[in-house]
Every structure is written in structure tokens, then in C-alpha cells.
From TrEMBL:
Domain ABC transporter, residue spans: 6-236
Catalytic activity: ATP + H2O + polyamine-[polyamine-binding protein]Side 1 = ADP + phosphate + polyamineSide 2 + [polyamine-binding protein]Side 1
Record keywords, A-Z: ATP-binding, Cell membrane, Membrane, Nucleotide-binding, Translocase, Transport
One GO CC term, this protein: ATP-binding cassette (ABC) transporter complex
EC number assigned by the record: 7.6.2.11
Family statement drawn from the similarity comment of this UniProt entry: Belongs to the ABC transporter superfamily. Spermidine/putrescine importer (TC 3.A.1.11.1) family.
The name this protein goes by in its record: Spermidine/putrescine import ATP-binding protein PotA
Transmembrane segments: none
GO molecular function: ABC-type polyamine transporter activity; ATP binding; ATP hydrolysis activity
Taxonomy, superkingdom: Bacteria
Amino acid sequence: MKKVSVECQNIRLSYGATEVLKDINLRIEPGEFFALLGPSGSGKSTLLRLIAGFNRHNAGRLLVDGRDISAVPAHKRNIGMVFQSYALWPHMTVWDNVAFGLVERRLPSAEIKERVASVLALVGLSDYAKRRPNELSGGQQQRVALARTIVIEPQVLLLDEPLSNLDKNLRVQMRQELLSLQRRLGITTIFVTHDQEEAMTTADRMAVLDQGVVQQVGRPSELYDFPCNRFVANFVGTMN
Ligand code: ADP
Ligand code: MG
């Protein structure tokens, strides 16, 4: 699969009179694992939803692979998003949850079978295909949400605080799983988190967002060693 870049150029978004994203400029390189770090309310989810096509920006350009996709509707963007809440279908089995997007796209059933089986194997859930979400642990539900998204073979993977519902130990384990899966697939990934340590230990590069403004972009070590302002210094420096 082709690795693509994602670029935000002078992006602005308001809810009513409140500007939530203020002149966002970011370039995520093809195949990169990019973390978007910021406190609650800083605009992280709004920016992800905008890239996915669920929010429209008021100004600026959104480029994927160099092409402006601002006018392309969400379902045609080839971008996968994992929500913080997972949003699994409670009445469907793991298998049906993962197959859903492929059925919707009317793929041949043999191909659906093959792709679902291979993705379930990839996330280590082959033995859980017949379970329903409420019969799974939090970590397993998280893997289903991930499987359901990557089975579509998106060019870009957006993860909105995918580990925040898990307890600390599992979070650390899943963080590594997520990263190694991303490395194997090579999908350009934007990982949203409010957890400094999570961003610092996983990201190729990261951006710190505060009040809708990108404060700094760089490798985790650059932000740690050379924070550009007091906010970044305090926020990145506070390991929890
Ligand atoms: P984060 O994900 O970083 O916690 P959000 O992107 O969810 O932040 O929210 C950024 C700001 O936009 C917050 O002040 C939030 O209250 C506001 N906001 C988010 N969604 C909406 C909405 N649908 N309508 C109005 N305001 C919103
Ligand atoms: Mg959020």
C-alpha cells in the first residue's frame, strides 16, 4: 500500500463564535507515527474529526498525498478512525463488527472472510470471533475497534485516545502493540493523547496543542530538551 502524507495548511475551525482551531499548520510524513498531545479541550478530537471528514474547516487546506481533500466526503476519504469510546456494535459478534465495513462496501463474501480472518489473527483475536463486545476485556475491545478500522485498509489511521479507557498496566502493553502493528502496516498514523509519557515513548514526531494553537512540533527528545515556551516545558516535562 502506498504511504501518504497528511498536511494541514492554515486550518481554522469555529463552533459558532468560538474559534477552536487557530491557523493549524502540520505536515505528517508518509508512514509516520505522529502524536498529537494536548490537555483536555485543546482541540485534538476536533482536528482528528476534521481530517476524517466529520468536521468541516472554515479556512485552510487539508492535503492527503498532496491532494486537497477538503471537499471529499468522509466515506470516500480512505481514512480510518478509532474512537475513544470504541463505538462497537453491542449486539454483533466480534466477527460481524470487524466485517461490517466490508459488507457495507459490498465486497465478495470470500474476500470478506479472508480479510476478517487475517486481521483478527493480526490483533490476536482469532479465538474470540464469536463473542460479543460485552464478553471481552477492555484491551480486547480495543483490539476489535482497531481491527474493524484497519480491515478497511485505510491510507491514514486516526486514533483518538485509544488507550484512555484501559488501566495503566494494560495501557503500557497496548501502546507497544499498537506501535508494532503500525510499523508492520506502515500506515501514516495520528495518535491523539493527553498523556505526555504515551506520546514521548511512541511517537516519531509529535505536536503539542493548546487552546487550538500548535505550540511546537518535533521529535519527542527535541520537545523535551528544547521546549519553545513555558507551556510546552511544563506539559512535556510532567511525566505521570
Ligand atoms: P480535546 O479533544 O482536545 O479534548 P475537543 O476537540 O473535543 O478537545 O474540543 C475543543 C473545544 O471545542 C472545547 O472547548 C469543546 O468544548 C469545544 N467543542 C467540541 N465539540 C463541540 C461542538 N460540537 N460544539 C461546540 N463546541 C464544541
Ligand atoms: Mg478529545
